[in-house]
Amino acid sequence: MRKKIISSRKFIKPSFSYLVEKKRDGGEFSDEEIRFIVDSILDEEMPKFQQAAFAMAVFFQGMSAQETAVFAEEMMLSGEVIDLTKITRPKIDKYSTGGVGDKTTLVLAPLAAACGVVMPTMNGVDEEYIISNLDKLSSIPGFNPVLDLKGFHSQLKKVGCTFIQQDPEIAPVDSILYQMRTETGTIPSLPLITGSVLSRKLAEGAEGLVIDVKWGNGSFIKDVEQAKQLARSITRVGRSMKRRCVALVTDMNQPLGDTVGTGLEIKEAIQLLKGEGPEDLQELVLKLGMEIVRLAGVAGSTLSAKQTVQRHLKDGSALQKFKDMIAAQGGDISVIDDPEKFPTAKHVRKLPAPKRGYVHTINAGLIAEGVAKLAKKKNGSYDPAVGVSEIKKVGTQVKQGEPLMMIHYNDEAKMEEALEYLKTAYRLAPKRPNPPELIVERVA
């Protein structure tokens, strides 16, 4: 780990109490003060209770764009910064605030690589909602989610994409603060999220960033205005750090696609890589994919970007890149060639509609909780055969007894516990609701 040295010019180190009080009272930190805070956390000189007070003060008082940019850069420099300059292709990463049934990043990494864009993806804990993309990929036999930094660079050069867990040498101060934020209720702080995202993604070697900020009951951001503010914060601060950024604010008030569960979602991702699959996911993959190729300079116009993305989905090159990535990380690609090789559950049972009507609302978070109860093993991994499929979406008309979803399970005892979550997730009404807009806003 590379350790930074504070500038030799005169800087009188303030006390941590002074810094906490300064932010508590609405003051703005100088660049040197932010550098001192980050260094003190890295060197374990700032006590945990004052780190907690710092996080809470920022939560309530916020940070300016300048403060946030310096904070992000200092956290980035607290560990290793990967140099991808020898890879001549454009390097664009994608960040998502996590959602239920979201397979878009699984599709976009190989799709970007097929389009000539390198996507250096390390999966952070804040990019998941209960079930992570690495949990899903682990349903592929042999898949290894761990690469060292040398292996990470080598695979990017050879394949153009990776899917690994975050290396501990990347932005270590962010990891320390993220744990503190989970313990102090300060996860939703916009400047802390912004600094966290940019410090990690830029340390991974990304030249630009496409952000999918989800809002709703299946995201940790429940308010659409807060989601818009986060999108603006990340893009504004990213630009001030001389990085290209664009964000989409998207709806997460129902699951994306037709399935939730590890193996079931990988099978759906394979469909999407063939240019097929559920309409909502096809739309989101297309829109985010277009942003990636435009940001990378691979496509100039909106029409050219759309044609580029569609071509690589239809001609099989995106699917081939997915297979190349899985093979490079030790996975068995025969299950991708023949998804029927994925394990299947012993039992499949419908969740019947209690009455006639229209699906008025769905609590995506409750569905994710239910699937986790159903699929999680004692060792923390997930049963790849277990989950839900054929999910009825908002606006769908159903008859009494008609399935709202199909439940795939292996354990009757877990099924009873999971049912309470799954039943509660649906609300039916006599009138058809207006379908939610999938993409709420674009911020660039």
Automatic annotation (TrEMBL):
Its EC number is 2.4.2.4. It is an enzyme of class 2 (transferase). InterPro entries: Glycosyl_Trfase_fam3 (IPR000312), Glycosyl_Trfase_fam3_N_dom (IPR017459), Glycosyl_Trfase_fam3_N_dom_sf (IPR036320), Nuc_phospho_transferase (IPR035902), PYNP-like_C_sf (IPR036566), PYNP_C (IPR013102), Pyrmidine_PPas_bac/euk (IPR018090), Thymidine/pyrmidine_PPase (IPR000053). The keyword Glycosyltransferase applies. It comes from the Bacteria. Keywords: Glycosyltransferase, Transferase. Residues 358-429 form the Pyrimidine nucleoside phosphorylase C-terminal domain. Coiled coil: none annotated. Pfam families: Glycos_trans_3N, Glycos_transf_3, PYNP_C. The keyword Glycosyltransferase applies. GO terms for molecular function: thymidine phosphorylase activity. It catalyses: thymidine + phosphate = 2-deoxy-alpha-D-ribose 1-phosphate + thymine. Belongs to the thymidine/pyrimidine-nucleoside phosphorylase family. Homodimer. This is thymidine phosphorylase. The lineage of its organism: Bacteria, Pseudomonadati, Verrucomicrobiota, Opitutia, Puniceicoccales.
